[in-house]
Each structure stands twice: as structure tokens, then as C-alpha cells.
Specification:
Layout (H helix, E strand, L loop, with lengths): L1 H9 L10 E2 L4 E2 L6 H14 L2 H10 L12 H11 L4 H11 L9 H16 L16 H9 L24 H4 L2 E3 L5 H6 L8 E3 L2 H5 L1 H5 L4 E6 L5 E8 L6 E4 L3 H20 L3 E2 L2 E5 L6 E7 L5 E7 L15 H8 L3 H11 L6 H11 L27 H4 L9 H10 L8 E4 L2 E4 L2 E4 L7 E4 H7 L2 H15 L6 H13 L20 H22 L1 E2 L4 E2 L14 H19 L5 H20 L4 H4 L4 H24 L2 H7 L9 H12 L3 E3 L4 E5 L5 E4 L4 E4 L4 H16 L6 H4 L7 E7 L13 E8 L6 E7 L5 H4 L1 H10 L1 H7 L36 E2 L15
Length: about 850
């Protein structure tokens, strides 16, 4: 091994190193993002290397495997708990002794080099005929030097193997995903499928994962004779391998490139020239670091681009040496203390070292779920950019005013308004004992639905929401009044599965059931806090505090049962129907008093004396008053519908859902299943499957509704007063769209966050071909992020613009180039028109309609 390391070092080669135990400083570096996964991986790492056996013998004089899962449950829990207490340094020293690396006068780094090889041998001991990889991706000159000295290096050999190569680097990483070695936790399931867990790679995310079984193919097999050094001397039997299928995607590489580059450029501009949030002029777009853009073919449901930023280069997982310690830390283990401190200082969220530290502990607190944790922090306010998080399919955000076309559709289709309906916007809408402001101070004056869409008038849509509620408030099921907007939203693909082949979150439109459940949980904890504090602030009621927190393992069963009944009483009071509140009030008070007395009876005599009947009455009254008159009102208020009507409140949608929604508007009410898969080919280029467009639902919209919607949305991007006219000024093809701005939280300015900037649109306006959605976190306003859509349009209509508008100069021009990689010519063609993927993926660089038969490998 000393000679091997010497040759590698002299020739600038890097030892294969995915060993999670690092030195200087000692630490575990697992390729996982969340704390629970890291904890599991640390346990598995230590168990695989025998530390659990060491503890079992120390504690109980038996092997860990001999402990019974049921009878010795407590012993197993103790061992696992103490395994996590073993430090990285202690683990390293244990392995130094186990692998007999001591007494050789080696530095820590040198000890670790030997440790990596010996550890790989141990981990592969069950399949000793397989080689342990010491180094990959050798230069030819280095390989020849090993060949020359094979006689001096018994047990060492040199061979070739294919690697996956992504010629466009980060391009489409949110779609393609990446491949990696099989995780220890998945070892058993993949072995059952015939994988070699020591050498095989699998798709971990994206298309790589979704079509793993089709892309994989079959490896060849050889039966061979080897000499005592493990080298092959004779081949006895050979079975040839065969390749997997080639998958052609709907993604247009040039369009994908334009979407990603435009997102990056737009976010950079927002950070460098921070613009104010229209809702609060003091909050700026300085943290615009994450975003997504999705492009649909409105006539087929094909996803032509799906961009998530920041992205990552999938080559780091396939080309040896690219996943450096620095890259691994950046992607999987970012130092939140360092990041948080820099963020707080750069955003001027605190002054002075002590204030910065206090703010750090508020925004990036230590993860309390990890016992004895002193280093791992949480990103409480979702500030850190996450390259492996697909913001296009996973980020659930409120749609803001991009939801207003949906409210208009509901109002028009349900007949509570028509194309000629007008209101007088005074600036503040009042109803049901509450008031809601229009974004324009003083209001828009007399305004109808078309101009309300164009100018994004809140007041008009508050009124539509109220009219819909009034229409159904006396229906047999009260939920109908609250859920009517949700019913329309789901028809248009909001809050439901889009059908896309890669994982997606669903989210939901505001609805009565979810709101009732979520607010019940939230208000239960608020009520519990009131009882524990002995003070109900809203009514200035004071009483002796009572703690109703349930501790099943530490208290008498009768007390636990009483606390559970208290919890049920609180929930019932919060959820009671509005018309039954008065009649049920006395019953809830009595139920609460009865259970509180049971609880108090368990206290010692001195403490019991404080809880007189009067005190218990006050406590019960404070709790039930809060539940019925405060919490309950927030569940049943029509104000929830009014908030929902302008895209605020409890709506949570993904960018891919927003694109599906606007595509459905653009094509007149036909919601297509979203899809990335286009065709699959066998190894002789025969088509074995081709995806056909699939309509999930046909919404029979009135012609008048479609006309009103399209007229209003055209005004947004092309008429004076439209909220996105600046972004599309001078663009010769008429488009349609809607901007949106949705707050992150009521206290967003305290942590440097601002509203989501949201834009949805389609083009051409009169005969739509593509639909676009854009979301930028902390983007401030839809008008600020609309330039991304313009860049997409300029790329998609590039040929038409040259032909019909030769004098037009595109605002954005993002050239698509393959990355250059020096791999001694071992990696294939990297020309712009050919993205060679040796393992069988087709990247479609063309629009499906423009070049149907052009599949670029």
C-alpha cells in the first residue's frame, strides 16, 4: 500500500474517498441533509464497524446480535443511546487499533489513508472476490506505471469501467436528478433486486430514480480462474451485457437553459438592486436566492422546462474527485453558525456581537431533537438555499394575486358576477365586522372584472369571495360556503397531483376541513399556555396556573386520562358550530371544571388549598371563553373566504401546479396530465413506448368567462396600468399573465425575508402555445420576477421573432454550451448539438412540435 500511495501522490492522483469519518477536525460527514437521517447513518456506521458489539460485551458480556429485540429492548436502547455519545475522535482511535495501523509513525492523514482501504476490505468481506477500489479516473500515464510494476504490487490491478457523464453540467439537474452508490439503509432491498451494493450505482432523484429500472440494463458476467494474487489467468464463461432503454424527455434543453439562466440573473439583480416589497416598502429583496420556473405546452401537458435554483452538477457524483470535502460540506452539511452569522450581519438584523449571537440562536437554534447537541443547528425560517431541494415540484407557497383569475372564474361560472359587474373600490373593504385593505391607497374607484385583473384590485375580489360565501352559507352543509373556491381550484390543478413522473408535493387550496383541523391544534396549545400562565390576556382574567401537559410515562393513569378529557373538551369547544356556541357554553364550562378538579386532586395538600372552587371556575371560564369566542370565530369567519379570494390565507401550491393551472386557463379549460417522459427506445433505437397527451379533466367554461379572463390577463402584460407591463415592454408577440405577491409571514422583516414574487402567464395571448409559472423566494412582487417569463418567450419564439420581427433585438440571449471536461478523451462527444450519455439517456434539445423526430443523444 505504501508503494501504491507513493505512485498516486507522485502523479497527482486522488485516493477514492467516501469514508464518512474525517480528521482535522475529527467529524462525521454524512451525505444527508436532515438531522434524523444523519443520526441513523451515524448509528449504522458504528454498528457496521463493531462498536455496538464492543458496548454489548462491556455492559452485558454478550454480542449485540445475541440480544433479544423484545426482552432486551432496554439494553438495546441503552447501547444505541451510548453509541451516539462516542465521539468521532474516539471512533477513529478505535478503528486505528482494530485495523492495526498503530506503531507505524504515521500522521493522522496517513493513518486515514490506510484506514479507508482496510475499512473497504472489511465492508466487502462477505464478497471477497470483488475488488476494493483504491483510486478512480487515473491518467493513462499513471495507469501505465501501475502496469509496469504489477509484479511488485501483489493484489493490485488496473481496469476500465464506464461512468455517467452529464455534458451540460447543472442544466436540468432538477429534472435529471443524480446517481450515487447504494446507501447502507437500502442495501437489503437492492440486493434482492440483483444489485451489487459494493459497486453498483442507482438513481437517487429525478428521472434517474423514476426510470432506474428501465435505464439500468443488465451487467455481463464472467466465470474466471485467478492466480494467488487475484489476477485473472483464464476466462471460462462469459455472458454479454445489454444496455437499458434510452429515455427521451419532453424538456427542451435550450428553453431549460433560458429558464435557469434567467432565474439566476433575475435573482442576482434583485439582490444587487434590492427593490421594496409593495406591501411594506421597508422590506427589500436582498435575500432573493431561490426560485423556480416551469414551462408547459398548453396543448399536450408536456413540461418543456422545469428549473429549480440553485442547482447542482450531477457529475460530482459520477466523475471521481469532483465530490470534494468542500463540495460535500456545501451541499450536505453547511455550517449554519457561519452562514447565519454572515446572513444576520449582511442583512443588518442585529448590531453588536452579543446581539448577533442572540439573533443567531433565535433564527438558527441548536437542534434540540439531538441529545447533547452543541453544533448542529436548524434553519427555522427557511433561509438557506438548498441545491438538492426541487423548488419547482416541492416548494409549497401561497400564490398571491396569481389566484385572482381563479376567483374570477368561480364568480363568473357561479353567476354571482358577470362581465359587466362593477364595484366602487374605496381602498378598504368592510364586511362581517372586519376590514381588508386594497393594495392601492384610496382604491381604484369604479372597477369591473377585466380591469380588476389587469390592475390586481384586491377590493373587487374580496367582494367576489363574499358573494360566493353568501350564496352558499345556508346550504345543507355549511362547508360548501367555505369550500366553493377550493372546488374550482382543484379543477384547474391547484392542490392536486399534476401527474408528473418525479416526486411532487400536493399542498392544498384553502378549505374548511383543513383549516378546522390545523387551527384546532394551534389553538389547543394556545389554550394550554393560557392555563399554564394563569392569565387570559384578552379578557384580563387571572387565576392560579394549571399545567395540563400530558406526560403519560410520568404520571398516574387517572391523571393522564383527565388531561386527555380536558384536551377533548378544548377541541370540542374550538370546533363547535357557530350557531351552537351559546347553547353549549355552560356544558363545556362544567366539563372543564370537573376534569380540572380531578387534576388538582392529585396535588399535595398545600398546593390543593390554592385551587378553590372560585379559582377553578375562573380557569375553566378563561379556557372556554378563549375557545368559543376567539379560536372558534377564526375557524368560522367568512373572512377566511375573503382572504382566500386574493390568494392569501391557507393556499399552498407548487410552481408546477401553478403552470398547470395557467395552462388550463390558456387552452380554455382542458387540464392535461403533466409529463416529462416522451419516448423510450431500445438499444437498436426502436420506439418501445411513446407518451400520449392525457386530459385529466374538461371544465366546460362559458365562452364569456374565457373571454373576460383572457382580456383581463392580456391587460396585465400589455396595457397601461397592468402590473407586468414593464417586464414585457417592446416584446412584439402579445402575451397574457398575472402577477402575485404573497407574504412569507407577519414577522418576515424581522428575519430578512420578504414576500414571494409570483408570475403566471402564457403566449401568444390569442392562440396560446406555452404557459409559464415563475416563483422567486423573497422576490417581492410578481412584476419583479416576470422577466424570467420574457426570457423563456424569447427563446421559444426565437425563429418566429427573427422571421416576423427582424428588427427586434432580444433582451435576453443565453447560449447553450456543453461543458468541457479533460478526461484524456475517455468521455464522449461534447459538441453543442450532441449530449452524449454513455449509459443511455436522450436529452431532447428541441421543441416537440418543431422537431418531433430529432432526438439528440
Amino acid at each position: 500500500m505504501e508503494k501504491v500511495f507513493q505512485i498516486l501522490s507522485q502523479n497527482g492522483e486522488i485516493q477514492e474517498d467516501d469514508f464518512a469519518l474525517k480528521v482535522k477536525p475529527y467529524r462525521f460527514d454524512f451525505k444527508a441533509v436532515n438531522a434524523s437521517d444523519k443520526k441513523w447513518l451515524e448509528l449504522r456506521f458504528k454498528k457496521d464497524r463493531g462498536l455496538n458489539d464492543k458496548l454489548a460485551k462491556d455492559y452485558y458480556e454478550k454480542n449485540y446480535a445475541d440480544l433479544d429485540k423484545e426482552k432486551d429492548k432496554d439494553k438495546i436502547q441503552r447501547i444505541e443511546k451510548d453509541l451516539l455519545k462516542i465521539t468521532p475522535e474516539e471512533t477513529f482511535k478505535y478503528l486505528v487499533e482494530t485495523y492495526e495501523i498503530i506503531g507505524q509513525n504515521l500522521s493522522l492523514e496517513e493513518q486515514r489513508k490506510y484506514m479507508i482501504v482496510k475499512d473497504n476490505i472489511k465492508m466487502q468481506s462477505f464478497s471477497g472476490y470483488k475488488p476494493v477500489v483504491i483510486a478512480k479516473n487515473l491518467k493513462k500515464e499513471t495507469a501505465f506505471k501501475f502496469y509496469e510494476r504489477l509484479n511488485e504490487l501483489p493484489g493490485i490491478d488496473v481496469g476500465n469501467e464506464p461512468i455517467r457523464y452529464y455534458p451540460y453540467g447543472e442544466l436540468g439537474s432538477s429534472v435529471l436528478g443524480y446517481i450515487s452508490k447504494i446507501n447502507t439503509e437500502d442495501k437489503d432491498s437492492y440486493e434482492e433486486k440483483g444489485y451489487d451494493v459494493s459497486t453498483d450505482t442507482i438513481g437517487v432523484s429525478g428521472i434517474e430514480k423514476a426510470y432506474e429500472s428501465r435505464l439500468r440494463g443488465s451487467k455481463g458476467q464472467r466465470t474466471v480462474k485467478v492466480n494467488k494474487y487475484g489476477r485473472i489467468v483464464e476466462e471460462l464463461f462469459k455472458k454479454n451485457p445489454y444496455s437499458g432503454e434510452k429515455i427521451q424527455l419532453t424538456i427542451d434543453a435550450k428553453l431549460q437553459n433560458a429558464a435557469e439562466k434567467a432565474l439566476d440573473k433575475t435573482m442576482e439583480n434583485l439582490r444587487n438592486n434590492p427593490r421594496p416589497d409593495p406591501q411594506d416598502l421597508t422590506i427589500m429583496t436582498s435575500n432573493a436566492t431561490r426560485g423556480a420556473a416551469v414551462v408547459f405546452n398548453v396543448k399536450t401537458g408536456e413540461v418543456l422546462a422545469l428549473a429549480s435554483r440553485p442547482g447542482f452538477d450531477p457529475n460530482i457524483f459520477t466523475i471521481p474527485g469532483k465530490l470534494t470535502d468542500e463540495a460535500s460540506k456545501k451541499y450536505f452539511n453547511p455550517d449554519l453558525k457561519e452562514f447565519g452569522t454572515q446572513y444576520i450581519e449582511s442583512m443588518a438584523l442585529a448590531s453588536g456581537k452579543s446581539n448577533v449571537e442572540q439573533k443567531l440562536n433565535q433564527m438558527f437554534p441548536l437542534d434540540k431533537r439531538i441529545e447533547n447537541n452543541t453544533t448542529i443547528r436548524e434553519d427555522t425560517y427557511d433561509i438557506v438555499p438548498k441545491p438538492f431541494y426541487n423548488y419547482a415540484t416541492f416548494s409549497l407557497t401561497p400564490p398571491g394575486s396569481t389566484f385572482k383569475p381563479l376567483t374570477a372564474i368561480a364568480g363568473l361560472e357561479d353567476g354571482v358576477i358577470n362581465g359587466g359587474t362593477t364595484v366602487v373600490d374605496t381602498g378598504t373593504y368592510t364586511n362581517y365586522g372586519g376590514s381588508w385593505n386594497c393594495w392601492k391607497r384610496g382604491g381604484h374607484g369604479v372597477i369591473g372584472v377585466v380591469n380588476a385583473l389587469k390592475e390586481s384590485c384586491n377590493y373587487f375580489f374580496y367582494n367576489v369571495g363574499s358573494l360566493l360565501y353568501e350564496k352558499y352559507k345556508n346550504a345543507p352543509r355549511i362547508e360548501k360556503a367555505y369550500d366553493i373556491i377550493k372546488e374550482y381550484a382543484e379543477k384547474f390543478g391547484l392542490g392536486v397531483k399534476t401527474g408528473i413522473e418525479i416526486p411532487e408535493k400536493i399542498g392544498s387550496a384553502y378549505n374548511f376541513k383543513s383549516t378546522k383541523e390545523n387551527k384546532t391544534i394551534m389553538f389547543y396549545y394556545s389554550c394550554r399556555d393560557i392555563l399554564k400562565a394563569g392569565f387570559e390576556q384578552g379578557r384580563n382574567k387571572k387565576f392560579v396556573p394549571i399545567d395540563i401537559t400530558i406526560r403519560e410515562n410520568k404520571e398516574d393513569k387517572s391523571i393522564t386520562e383527565a388531561k386527555k378529557k380536558i384536551k377533548e373538551t378544548i377541541k370540542s369547544a374550538i370546533q363547535v358550530e357557530a350557531k351552537k356556541k351559546n347553547s353549549m357554553y355552560a356544558k363545556y364550562i362544567e366539563d372543564m371544571k370537573t376534569q380540572l378538579k380531578v387534576l388538582v386532586s392529585s396535588y399535595d395538600k398545600d398546593k390543593q388549598s390554592k385551587y378553590t372552587d372560585e379559582q377553578i371556575e375562573k380557569a375553566a371560564s378563561a379556557a372556554i371563553d378563549f375557545c368559543i369566542w376567539d379560536a372558534n370565530i377564526q375557524i368560522y369567519t367568512p373572512g377566511n373566504v375573503i382572504n382566500a379570494s386574493i390568494g392569501q390565507g391557507d393556499h399552498q401550491f407548487t410552481p408546477v401546479q401553478l403552470a398547470n393551472y395557467v395552462a388550463t386557463i390558456a387552452n380554455g379549460g382542458h387540464r392535461y396530465e403533466a409529463h416529462l417522459f416522451k419516448k423510450a427506445y431500445d438499444d437498436e433505437d426502436n420506439v418501445v413506448e411513446e407518451k400520449q397527451p392525457k386530459v385529466i379533466s374538461d371544465i366546460n367554461l362559458k365562452d364569456s368567462t374565457i373571454e373576460v379572463l383572457k382580456e383581463g390577463m392580456k391587460g396585465v402584460t400589455s396595457e397601461e396600468g397592468g402590473t407586468a407591463t414593464k417586464a414585457f415592454a417592446g416584446f412584439p408577440i402579445q402575451t397574457a399573465g398575472k402577477t402575485g405577491s404573497a407574504t412569507f409571514s407577519a414577522t418576515q422583516n424581522e428575519v430578512g425575508r420578504t414576500s414571494f414574487g409570483v408570475f403566471v402567464g402564457y403566449a401568444p395571448a390569442d392562440n396560446p402555445e406555452i404557459a409559464v409559472s415563475v416563483v422567486i423566494f423573497d422576490g417581492g412582487h410578481g412584476g419583479y420576477v416576470a422577466p424570467v417569463a420574457r426570457a423563456v418567450y424569447e427563446e421559444y419564439f426565437a425563429e418566429r421573432l427573427k422571421k416576423e420581427y427582424p428588427a427586434y433585438t432580444p433582451t435576453y440571449n443565453y447560449e447553450l454550451k456543453a461543458i468541457e471536461v479533460d478526461q484524456n478523451n475517455v468521455i464522449g462527444d461534447t459538441k453543442e448539438d450532441k449530449a452524449s450519455d454513455k449509459t443511455g439517456k436522450d436529452i431532447d434539445n428541441s421543441s416537440s412540435e418543431k422537431e418531433e423526430d430529432n432526438k439528440n443523444e
